[in-house]
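Long-time lurker. I teach an intro course on protein structure, and each term I like to show students one example going from raw sequence to a predicted 3D structure in C-alpha cell notation. This year I'd like something fresh instead of my usual example. Would anyone be willing to generate the C-alpha cells for the chain below so I can use it in lecture? Attribution to the forum is fine with me.
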Amino acid sequence: MSQGSKRTVVAHLVSMIGSWWGILVVTGGVYFLYPIPKEKLLMFVAWIFIPTVAAELIKFVFKRPRPVARGEAVKVKAYGYSFPSSHTVAAFMIASWVLLVPELRWWSFLFALWPIIVGWSRVWLRAHDTVDVVGGFGFGALATVVIWFA
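-- Reply from a regular --
Happy to contribute to a lecture. Here you go:
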C-alpha cells in the first residue's frame, strides 16, 4: 500500500469520527469515561450541536461549492455546500469543551490536536478546501467565545 493510500485510509477514519454519528460516539465516550454531572450534560450537548447545526445553516449563506462540484477528483462523497467545514466546527467544539471544563482538563492532550487532524482529513479527501477548514476553526473559536461568556 502506498503512502498516499495509507493517508487516505487514515483520513477516512478521522472523517467518519468527525461525522454526525462519530460526534455522538465521541460524546458518549467522553461521558462514559468521565460521567459529566447532569447539570453540565445538557450544556455539553448544546455546546457541540448548536454551533455545528449553525455551521450547516451558514453554508446556505455563502453557498461555496465543494471541490467535487468544481469537477475535482475527490476521495470521499460530499454533498451540499462547503464553507465552513462543519466537521471542523464540531471537532473544535469538542476540543474546546474538554480544554475549558476543569474536570476534563486531564483529557486535553488527547483533544488539543483533534480539530487540526479533522481539518487535514477533510482537505486530504477533497471534501473541502483549506479556506473551508480555516472558516470552521474561526467559527468554532467564535462560537466558543460567545457560548463561554454568554
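Some talking points for your students: The CA atoms of residues 99 and 109 lie 9 Å apart. Residues 3-149 form one domain.
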